[in-house]
Design goal:
The protein has 17 helices and 14 strands. By secondary structure, the chain is of the alpha/beta class. The chain has an eight-stranded mixed barrel with strand order 7-8-9-10-11-12-13-14, surrounded by four helices. InterPro entries: Cyclic-di-GMP_PDE-like, EAL_dom, EAL_sf.
């Protein structure tokens, strides 16, 4: 009976759209339309954001339903939706939640607005883990189920010339494939693509200058990754999200390091170079040995020229070799920077744990700081933290003259952003200027 009712139940649940979480709007089955989804995705694109589709699944839902029986199954689904929503409301800013589809088929689908300048795959990964862990715990407690297979996957909606509806549909299909991780064409296709990129080292690097706020001189460059041009993995968000979910993140970040060393060697760059690494890669047991091997290949590049930037918003807690690897990196002469400072607990916790050489202040603090006295007070507080730890400060994401003036007024050390320069290919003349 449950299996017979499922198609109807799926159709009804497809028709329920939550937009936003605190205002539930129900659309009758005969009026199931995707326009609200397309509208919010288009709006996010126009405002300069990316959109990620996150799927939460119970891969063995049918078995769970058979075990519970029809009445308890209905209660289970109701409780499932409630717990997912509560965790999502707690973990996310309301404006970042574009759409939440109710439980349908075997998954709950969340549309997230992502600011690619200050957020990334680690944050999404962290959100997914919290939603699944807390929801699973509550449901197991309520229904005494310990064998439900909770899973999740995500993908970014491509900004392409074809229809947004088609892009949403494809991203959802790929996110679902990531959640299920079964032998299916979508997952295998992405696995093949990222494996090919890694094996062929088929990435390119751009460099964005970091300037002295007082003198406007270029002091350093941050290296930024792009996937194969013209492909769905050209976007760094898409590339690193697929790499992370398919187990290629560490390999990809090592390729970025090697390609960066190649560029330093080719251009003769004498300025400092910032290279992004996730805490997961920095905590890898192989990281120090792999790094030493690469540095031996480029003996002319001193470790002091390289700044290891701990990026994304992964918590360092529970990463076994992270702190010991950071200590070794310091002893070898590398400098350590912490990204996203001011964006949340994780970055502040990282600062207290490792006492970085450089603190990068998140764009969320810098944006419109000239119009917001509270943000300037936050900046002053972070500068005090930097003085306490003996760290230099880099202000990220400066996009206007007014924001730059606030940095100058508060004697911030370094700055980067579109106001000064957009990312470009590192040239010999640029590198030596």
């Amino acid at each position: 009976m449950i299996r017979q009712m499922q198609p109807l139940r799926n159709l009804i649940n497809w028709a329920k759209i939550v937009l936003p979480l605190h205002k539930i709007r129900y659309y009758p089955p005969q009026f199931v339309i995707r326009n609200p989804v397309i509208e919010v995705v288009n709006k996010a694109f126009k405002e300069g954001y990316e959109v990620a589709i996150v799927v939460f699944n119970i891969n063995n839902l049918r078995e769970v339903c058979d075990y519970l029986g029809e009445h308890n199954y209905t209660l289970f689904i109701k409780s499932l939706k409630k717990h997912f929503r509560l965790v999502i409301e707690k973990e996310l800013e309301q404006d970042d939640v574009l759409v939440l589809h109710d439980y349908y088929s075997d998954g709950l689908t969340l549309f997230l607005r992502i600011d690619h300048e200050r957020s990334g795959v680690s944050e999404i990964d962290s959100i997914m883990k919290k939603v699944l862990k807390e929801s699973e715990s509550k449901l197991n407690e309520e229904f005494s189920i310990s064998y439900a297979e909770f899973a999740s996957g995500y993908m970014f909606v491509e900004k392409k010339h074809y229809s947004v509806q088609e892009a949403i549909s494809r991203a959802h299909q790929q996110a679902l494939a990531m959640a299920e991780k079964r032998v299916q064409s979508e997952f295998n296709e992405m696995l093949y693509s990222v494996n090919k990129i890694v094996s062929q080292r088929n990435i390119s690097l751009l460099a964005q200058p970091i300037l002295d706020v007082a003198t406007k001189e270029v002091r350093a460059w941050e290296m930024l990754t792009r996937g194969p041009k013209g492909t769905s993995l050209e976007s760094p968000l898409q590339l690193f999200s697929v790499a992370r979910q398919t187990g290629f993140l560490y390999d990809l970040e090592l390729i970025v390091l090697e390609k960066t060393l190649e560029q330093i060697n080719y251009t003769g760059c004498m300025q400092d170079i910032f290279i992004n690494f996730t805490p997961i890669s920095l905590g890898n047991q192989r990281f120090i040995a792999d790094l030493k091997k690469l540095m031996l290949k480029y003996k002319n590049i001193p470790p002091r020229q390289i700044t290891i930037e701990i990026t994304e918003r992964d918590s360092i807690e529970g990463i076994e070799h992270f702190l010991s690897n950071i200590k070794i990196l310091r002893n070898l002469g590398f400098r350590i920077a912490v990204d996203d400072t001011g964006s949340g607990y994780a970055s502040l916790n990282t600062i207290s744990a490792i006492m970085p050489d450089i603190i990068k202040i998140d764009r969320s603090v810098i944006q419109d700081i000239d119009k917001n006295s509270v943000k300037e007070s936050m900046l002053k507080g972070l500068l005090l933290v930097a003085r306490e730890t003996g760290s230099l400060v880099v202000a990220e994401g400066i996009e206007s003259k007014e924001e730059a003036l606030v940095m100058h007024r508060n004697q911030v050390d370094l700055a980067q952003g579109y106001y000064f320069a957009r990312p470009g290919v590192l040239q010999k003349s640029m590198a030596s200027s």
